[in-house]
Amino acid sequence: MSALALKGSSWVTVRQHRRSLWWALGLGIAAVALMVTSRLWSDSAVEALRAAGCTVDSPDRSCFQHARDYTDDQWFARQLVEYAALGMFLLPVLLGAFLAGPMIARELESGTYKLAWTQSVSPARWLTVKLAVPAALVVTGVPVLSLVFHWTWSTGPSNDFPTYWYDPNIFTSSGTVPVANALMGITLGVLIGLLVRRTVAAMGLAVVATSAVLGALYWLRPGLWPHQTLTGRELSLRVSDSWVLANGMITESGERVGWEYCDTGPEVARACMIGRGGASDFVDHHPATHFWPLQLIETGILLALATLALLAAFRVLRARHA
After folding, report:
1. Which is it for the CA torsion 54, 57, 61, 63, positive or negative?
2. Please, what sign has the CA dihedral across residues 130, 173, 212, 101?
3. How far apart are CA 302 and CA 308, in angstroms?
4. What does the longest C-alpha to C-alpha distance in the chain come to?
5. 209-215 long-range Cβ contacts below 8 angstroms, 24+ apart
6. Would you say 174 and 146 are in contact if contact means Cβ atoms under 8 Å apart?
7. At residue 277, what are phi and psi to the nearest 5 degrees?
8. What pLDDT was estimated at residue 207?
9. What is the CA radius of gyration of the chain?
């Protein structure tokens, strides 16, 4: 037998939840297949247009249908990328609900945990195993999903129908944040399961709590790293691929006049801001080089929250089952 074979409590946990684990594996494989399909679909559209000797903006009438087919295919490929990103974004919510309800609260509600504790398994070891099994799957599986997603997103239909690195679902599907998000969902779900001890209630509360954390980080994200401010003319050419936070004009006295004060068409709005004393354009933005600082800071926050939830979970367990 392999030295890596599961034994004892780990084997029991996997055996108990094997159906859910198989579902998780199947969904992971389906997600990879979805992302690879998007990439291949995009490549196929490019090859078909090239084989017809056409371009998207060709004036040749014989190319109109080929260009339309190309555009439709690229749009479909982009939609697949967005569905994959949405799934990655919702992953911590799903993990939190599963850990809070079926894996923890159900055992406490039904009393089946007592059987494990009478088999020379301490409460702390029981909880450690409950955490270790999904955490191991997350640490090994989510990076693969994240890498495949980045490959699909960065080399697929992004040029024709662009999605940007700072879009919420794209940001949380790339880099180090996906793993940290998933670990946060796991530990928060376990803590809620221990506190609530009712399956359905624990699942619902875990969804609310995990969603609240994701929402709070979305709101805080722009300020996690100092943004850059540019002033002058033709700023749009200097902030391509940047996350623009605010823009408008600055008066001679240094006061800012934003677009929100002149909520009309671009040309009329510019005349409006000049009428308010605007003398020079400004833009606050995060350039693409801020991707990793923002990623690492958010990852640190998520891991800190996961650690606090983990410590609280063991404290609750010890207080109730000392």
Report:
1. positive
2. negative
3. 10
4. 80
5. 209/96, 210/92, 210/93, 210/96, 210/97, 210/184, 210/185, 211/93, 213/92, 213/184, 213/188, 213/302, 213/305, 214/89, 214/92, 214/93, 214/172, 214/181
6. yes
7. 105, 5
8. 94
9. 25
Interatomic CA distance for residues 187 and 154, integer angstroms: 31
Rounded distance between C-alpha atoms, residue 270 and residue 273, angstroms: 5
Rounded to 5 degrees, what are φ and ψ at 5?
-65, 145
DSSP secondary structure letters along 122-184: -HHHHHHHHHHHHHHHHHHHHHHHHHHHHHHHHHSTTTTS---TTSHHHHTTSTTHHHHHHHH
Provide the token pair at 175. 């880099």
Which of helix, strand or coil describes residue 315?
A: helix
**Burial profile 53-80: b = 16 or more Cβ within 10 angstroms, e = fewer:** ebeeeeeeeebeebbeebbebbebbbeb
Per-residue pLDDT tens digits for 158-185: 566 778 899 999 999 999 999 999 999 9
Residue 197 zone, left/alpha/beta (φ > 0; ψ -120 to 50; rest): left
User: Is the model's pLDDT at 3 over the cut of 50?
Assistant: no
- Window from 42-46, 240-244, 264-268 with minimum mean pLDDT: 264-268
Token digits for 214? 């994701």
Stretch 201-227: mean pLDDT, rounded?
A: 94
Full-model pTM = 0.85
Q: Which residues contact 216 (CB under 8 A, 6 or more apart)?
A: none
Task: Give the amino acid at 252.
Answer: E
Q: How many CB atoms lie within 10 A of CB 236?
A: 12
219-234 residue pLDDT tens: 999 999 999 988 877 6
Q: Which amino acid is at 132?
A: A
What distance in Å separates the CA atoms of residue 134 and residue 40, rounded to the nearest whole number?
A: 31
What amino acid is encoded at 143 in this protein? P
User: What is the DSSP code (8-state) at residue 227?
Assistant: P
Instruction: State the pLDDT confidence band at 130, using cuts at 50, 70 and 90.
Output: confident
